[in-house]
Amino acid sequence: MSEKKEKIVAIKGMNDILPADAPLWELFENTAESVLKSYGYQKIVTPIVEETGLFARAIGAVTDIVEKEMYSFTDSMNGDQLTLRPEGTAGVVRAVIEHNLAYDGPKRLWYKGPMFRHERPQRGRYRQFFQFGAEAIGFSGPDIDAELIMLCRRLWDDLGLDNIRLELNSIGNAEERQRHRADLIAYFEANIDVLDAEAKRRLHANPLRILDTKNPAMQDLVNNAPKLLDYLGGESLAHFEGLKKILDANNVQYTVNPRLVRGLDYYNRTVFEWVTDMLGAQGTVCAGGRYDPLIETFGGKPTPGIGFAMGIERLIELMKEQGEPATPAQCDVYLVHQGEDAQTKAFILGERIRDAGLDVVLHCATPAGAGSFKSQMKKADGSGAAFAVIIGEDEVENGVVAVKSLRDSEGGQQQTSVPFDEAVDFIVDQIVGGHDHDHDHDHVHYHP
């Protein structure tokens, strides 16, 4: 007797997206892509692996991501230092510079894909997570900041998400942050006994991040700390006021949060987060801001930029919290058949129906066998199909198929005998024609 092999499971913090959740993911991705397209954004796809130095330079060497969370390794073939991307902006900016994308004018870009961070897994925070993001490269005014924020609002509306609020801040330019930083360090040093170990570690390396602390014992201290908004010069203030003016004119609700600083070194001026209270500790579902210095840091010509990124898993969780939409049908038509000749006919008809633009599932044998008509009809009903098409020995002999409505709310489930060569036209007419009022056809993919 052979030894039972140990089951292999997924790596901690890296999850499978199962067929039951796929419709929600498709709904999110299709809606997001549609919204981005409606604002003139174009898709860009960058590699999952980049040089480690790209992220150290972009994100900042003294950040949690670079110090503790990146999946980095040495390429065994040539010794290169490589990293699985922990975020999307750095790769997009690298591509913009490498391919001179901004040479002929500003670009609106969007991306989606997996990111990797070695964090402690919890609800809505995983080691492989999927991000959807947009970057606007080459625009300097507050108008593009407002556009990206309003784009997000439209996405929430289209997804039916109404428990997301906008928090906004300006972190000025490097000189303004330096003056604030010096005063912030002095303030925290004067209250060193209140700082926890993490805050003490960050004090001289990245003191702005102390303002992000969740430690209850430090809340009064950070609330009374010097506020960056008070250090902004005329240009930074004018940019922030310009943004608020456009948002106000478009009835975009927001809160100015002076403690909102973002964790990455490349941000300047506008920073924003969309936050919910429905997901526990992981409340931020979308975050972004302006990063005007970044492209020059990468060796490109000085070019302004702004973008956002959203975690798809968190938004899927939020969609579930606010009422998961009904699971779409697998298909429009389920083909039931019995006997060798019937199977041949079923394959031919299945292809013809697909040619007409409908989705078809054809019943196939399992280790238990082909299945009786009764068990096949049960599968047909479970598929969510509008119709079952039945082909047995009698149908083959008479050159017909039986078409049975599975979703008819009036007068029970009706079955009609139709000549084989007329079956496609009959089914299409039933689904896109006079049968529409009888049942929900959101799943139908018919395109004449």
UniProtKB/TrEMBL annotation:
L-histidine binds at residues 87-89, 117, 131, 135, 262, 266-267. Its main location: cytoplasm. It is found in: Cytoplasm. It comes from the Bacteria. GO terms for biological process: histidyl-tRNA aminoacylation. Residues 1-328 form the Aminoacyl-transfer RNA synthetases class-II family profile domain. Its EC number is 6.1.1.21. Keywords: Aminoacyl-tRNA synthetase, ATP-binding, Cytoplasm, Ligase, Nucleotide-binding, Protein biosynthesis. InterPro entries: aa-tRNA-synth_II, aa-tRNA-synth_II/BPL/LPL, Anticodon-bd, Anticodon-bd_dom_sf, His-tRNA-ligase, HisRS-like_core, HisRS/HisZ, HisRS_anticodon. One of its GO terms (molecular function) is ATP binding. Homodimer. HAMAP family: His_tRNA_synth. Belongs to the class-II aminoacyl-tRNA synthetase family. This is Histidine--tRNA ligase. It comes from Massilia cellulosiltytica. The lineage of its organism: Bacteria, Pseudomonadati, Pseudomonadota, Betaproteobacteria, Burkholderiales. The gene is hisS.
